[in-house]
Specification:
about 325 residues, alpha/beta, eight-stranded mixed beta sheet, four-stranded antiparallel beta sheet, 11 helices
């Protein structure tokens, strides 16, 4: 099946400022450094990694909320990075985002109804009455009540606010929704409710998701494929069951060891891998494999030659000279 979204060679470097302290550092922050990924229509790609690895920046690059330095993002056969603004606006109807913070992502001066109708107003979609009916329908769809239409965000809990964000993302009948850590600020029980809601909506509307998170158990619940990101690069990608049962990259193995198991006996028996050192600075990333400074399998070649992201097993890509389970 052809990919709905096909991003290749995406690069984004941010120049370091010239303040009294920062001027000593110089150089650029290599936030995203040559990332390629594809998502099939109706599927969910989970994107995981530590804070600061470039996940959210990549999401904004794929939506062209931030301008990329290099690369292309093909959405339904068109490179959105090269589209003029008029054409880009029409494409953005099909590409929406759910933000991480349910408190900061909603305008506190707008009612719930106005927030959900805002995309329809911007895109001149329907009459005023049609927008109102559509907004009430979406509010019901995400598990809220019609009377919430006239209320303000401060009157809702975090989980309810995130439901409002989901309703807003659905307003224009998108094909792709980027979920930028949509449950990380919520309680565990509320996380499950939002995840189940997203899965139900995907089945009903054939939505395609890119689901960004740092919690591997959350990603496993919702994703068809998983890509692991480290310091601006994709280091492993596979179908979720394949990746969870047989991770190839040492970084993924370390992440997996931190996921708690529901079986207390197995949890006590297994060995937790504690990575040494801190994540290197994206201003001056290590040569060769970027993970080699924290890797227990490193050899001389790891510091000298960057490993390509290539197939280590059928359908399983990893960027490692000495992969696990091979």
């Amino acid at each position: 099946m052809a990919a709905l979204l096909d991003a290749s060679g995406i690069v984004k470097h941010f120049p370091v400022g010239k303040g009294l302290i920062l001027s000593r550092l110089g150089g650029t922050v290599k936030a995203v450094d040559g990332v390629s990924l594809q998502v099939e229509e109706g599927k969910t790609l989970g994107l995981v990694g530590e804070s600061g690895c470039g996940k959210s920046t990549l999401a904004r690059l794929m939506l062209r909320l931030i301008k990329a330095d290099k690369g292309e993002v093909m959405f339904d056969g068109r490179d959105i990075l090269k589209l003029p603004n008029k054409e880009l606006q029409s494409v953005r109807r099909s590409m929406q985002i759910i933000f991480q913070d349910p408190y900061a992502s909603l305008n506190p001066r707008m009612t719930v109804g106005a927030i959900v109708m805002e995309p329809m107003v911007i895109h001149k979609d329907g009459s005023k009455e049609e927008r109102r009916h559509r907004a009430i329908e979406l509010i019901r769809l995400v598990g809220l009540q019609p009377e919430h239409f006239t209320r303000y965000p401060h009157e809702f809990s975090g989980g309810q606010r995130q439901r409002i964000g989901v309703a807003r993302a659905l307003a224009l009948n998108p094909r792709l929704i980027i979920c930028d850590e949509p449950v990380s600020a919520l309680d565990v029980s509320i996380q499950a409710q939002i995840l189940n809601l997203l899965k139900e909506l995907q089945g009903e509307f054939n939505l395609t998701y890119i689901f960004i998170a740092h919690d591997l158990s959350v990603v496993r619940h919702i994703s068809d494929e998983v890509a692991v990101m480290y310091l601006g690069k994709i280091v492993e990608r596979a179908e979720h069951e394949l990746l969870y049962s047989s991770p190839k990259h040492p970084y993924t193995v370390a992440l997996m060891s931190a996921v708690p198991l529901p079986d207390p006996v197995k949890e006590r028996e297994r060995q937790r891998i504690i990575l040494e050192g801190d994540v290197p600075s994206p201003i001056d990333p290590p040569t060769g494999c970027r993970f080699h400074t924290r890797c227990w399998k490193k050899q001389d070649i790891c510091a000298e030659e960057e490993p390509p992201l290539e197939e280590k097993a059928p359908g399983h890509l990893a960027a490692c000279h000495f992969p696990e389970n091979v």
